[in-house]
Write a structure and sequence with these properties.
Blueprint: E1 2-5, E2 23-28, E3 33-35, E4 41-44, E5 56-64, E6 74-82, E7 97-103, E8 111-116, E9 128-132, H1 135-140, E10 141-145, E11 151-156, E12 167-176, E13 190-200, E14 213-218, E15 226-229, E16 242-246, E17 256-258, E18 264-267, E19 278-287, E20 294-304, E21 312-313, E22 319-322, E23 330-337, E24 348-350, E25 361-365, E26 370-375, E27 387-395, E28 403-413, H2 428-432, H3 437-450
Parallel strand pairs: 7-13, 14-20, 22-28
Antiparallel strand pairs: 1-4, 2-5, 3-4, 5-6, 8-11, 9-12, 10-11, 12-13, 15-18, 16-19, 17-18, 19-20, 21-23, 23-26, 24-27, 25-26, 27-28
């Protein structure tokens, strides 16, 4: 697939030999893209590039005159390529079965709950439509997408009567609205789940002023942090005392507590948004004078992100520096990762401010959450120094920003020519073992004599 065409200019006379005849090549990024040496048209080299796996690419293009022959002059540039999203990921409900408590006093036409199918795509490619596919559910409830077309909002169509029917089962389907026929073989681009709606008997039981609560609390908040208050009232006695509790059958009771008198919900443990974003609990309200009269309400608690994870540079191996490296040449592009929300995840790079300027290497922040390590001088000698250390600081875009410092090891060696990535020549490893050329010759002669 054609991506872009680049053009280099040469001030030499194009009619005089090959002085101005330019040939294009890729110095970095050959695994993902190719370039027409004559036209400069960049194309993808992989058949199935996945944005969800990797979104940003930086490639280095060289333009060389004299038709690319030895002795020709060259220049290079960096092209940053961003993959655009396509609808190639079907939506999926996190669970196959859900349960929702709805009091029989819920108002017709009002929302009683929400449900969501997750989609790894972005924008319109992740927009959803929902529908109830069974007659029992569709007769009593309706479902429609919210304003962002991500969640399904469940509303009541008819009055509920606990004495007539206590449980409704809804078969819900979530489907993408913008399909791409090129990826139809990855479908179907829809998913189904089952929602059991339990009708609450509110005959003389406490009444909540709303049908459900949505609250939020920041992750890592201290234990005992206030989350929100639920309030119920005895319909028969405005001064009747109510006792609140969290349904012990729900996992949320290990994370949250509730004051039995005031209905104030607090945290019982430190919450981690990177682990779970939404917590669903059921709160029960019981009349003190008549403990048999109980009503419940679903409470959804969203864990808000805080910048509590410092970014770090992704690197496993030493960075190879070829002895023939030129000043200004990109040695390697490094990237960082962060477990926090994307809002905190735009990364910046720099060399430590409290360290003297490095005479050998410099760092260029590409402003796309990557940075390029570049040589500051011409040529390196493995005999003079094999290993270099380069400390790099990376920080995120949170407030306050978090940072970490990683010391990278750069290894100098004579490199093999013609390879896509810098690779040391085999003979480079013999000297690492401390063997001189004469010692190697002596060893070889001994082997020949034994043979």
């Amino acid at each position: 697939t054609s991506v872009i065409q680049i053009t280099a200019t040469d001030a030499d006379d194009p009619t005089y030999g090959n002085s101005a005849r330019i040939v294009y090549s890729i110095l970095q990024g050959q695994a993902y893209f190719s370039i027409d040496p004559k036209t400069g048209v960049i194309r993808t080299a992989l058949a199935n590039m996945d944005r969800e796996t990797r979104e940003l690419y930086s490639i280095i293009i060289q333009a060389k005159d004299m038709a690319g022959s030895v002795g020709g002059l060259s220049g290079s540039t960096t092209i940053n390529i961003t993959l655009t999203d396509v609808n190639d990921n079907p939506p999926r409900f996190p669970q196959k079965n859900y349960q929702l408590y709805v009091p029989e006093s819920a108002q017709v036409g009002k929302a009683v709950g929400k449900i969501k199918a997750n989609d790894e795509d972005l924008g319109v490619n992740a927009e959803m439509e929902y529908k109830i596919t069974n007659e029992e559910g569709a007769a009593m409830f309706s479902i429609s997408a919210d304003s962002d077309k991500r969640e399904g909002v469940i509303s009541l169509k008819k009055h509920l009567d606990y004495e007539k029917k206590k449980v409704y089962t809804l078969s819900i389907e979530g489907a993408n609205t913008h399909l791409d026929p090129r990826f139809s073989h990855l479908g179907p681009f829809k998913d189904t789940t089952t929602l059991k709606i339990i009708v609450g008997d509110l005959d003389e039981a406490p009444i909540f002023p709303v049908d459900y609560y949505i609250m939020d609390v920041y992750e890592n908040a201290p234990v005992g942090t206030d989350v929100g208050i639920v309030t119920a009232q005895d319909p028969d006695n405005a001064r009747g005392k109510i006792r609140y509790s969290i349904d012990m059958n729900i996992d949320g009771e290990t994370l949250f507590s509730i004051d039995e008198n005031s209905g104030l919900i607090k945290t019982r443990a430190s919450l981690d948004r990177e682990g779970t974003v939404w917590h669903n609990i059921n709160v029960s309200a019981t009349e003190v004078d008549n403990p048999k009269l109980v009503s419940s309400i679903p409470v959804t608690i969203q864990v808000l992100d805080v910048n509590d994870n410092a970014p770090y540079i992704q690197t496993d191996n030493d960075i190879i520096v070829c002895e023939s490296t030129k000043a200004g040449q990109v040695i390697q592009t490094i990237r960082a990762t962060d477990r926090d929300n994307f809002a905190n995840g735009h990364f910046s790079f720099a060399l430590p401010a409290d360290v003297p300027a490095n005479p050998n290497f410099t760092l260029k922040d590409n402003e796309d959450s990557s940075a390029s390590i570049m040589a500051r001088r011409w040529g390196f000698s493995r005999a003079d120094q094999e290993l270099y250390q380069l400390a790099v600081v990376v920080w995120d875009g949170g407030e306050p920003a978090l940072s970490s410092t990683t010391t990278l090891t750069l290894r100098v060696c004579p490199c093999q020519r013609g390879l896509r990535t810098p690779t040391c020549r085999p003979q480079a490893f013999f000297s690492s073992a401390g063997l001189s050329t004469g010692a190697l010759i002596a060893i070889l002669l001994c082997v020949l004599i034994l043979l």
